[in-house]
Amino acid sequence: MKKIINLKPSDYYTQRNNTLYPNSACMPTARAMFYHGNNIAFNNPSKLSDDDYFMSLLRSKEAYDFAKKKYPTLMDAGYQPNEIHGMYSSFLDLKVVGKRVSDFLTDLTYKDIINRMEKGEVIMTSGKFPEAGLIGHAFCIIGYINGAIGPALILADPWGDFRNNYRSKKGYSVLMTEYEFKIHVKPLQELKWGHVINV
Fold this sequence. Notes:
By secondary structure, the chain is an alpha+beta fold. It has helices at 26-37, 50-58, 61-70, 72-76, 86-96, 110-118, 178-184, and strands at 2-5, 102-108, 123-129, 134-147, 150-156, 172-177, 192-197. It has one domain (1-199): Cysteine proteinases (Cathepsin B, Chain A, Alpha-Beta Complex). Helix 1 (26-37) packs across helix 2. The longest helix has 12 residues, at 26-37.
């Protein structure tokens, strides 16, 4: 059996304890895990938790002004800056890291993700879990396991465990089979979205 986990349990974040917009904080919370898992140092001069601090930046007037210029179609459609994938590499990276350290890819395959896990990376992505009432939800892929039941990705999900419709709030080391990856990770086609480190 082969098992790789690229995020320590102590670096797992849950959005359920956030003070700023906890129900819509999956992306800032996943981003904190993305930075930790990829050993990217970031600044948080506030007294807020890292993910709350990211949310405060992404809901600032500066973020709204930036998003209206760079992503006008998404803003006109009613998205908040923290809900726009591009804001993480083009805005948040610069604010908390000082430079762009990630790219948002739209053509990731299951094999690509396995290869990145073997290199020690963490990928931030999003999916749909309609059985739990989530039409959009961000989480991190932090590893994979190849055991008796076959290969599966290992997730760090800030809301909990999708396998029981999030009745369990424990989202660290949740397994996702290749079939579940195909039917849940966006978009619901062969090639998937994901934030990856920019090396």
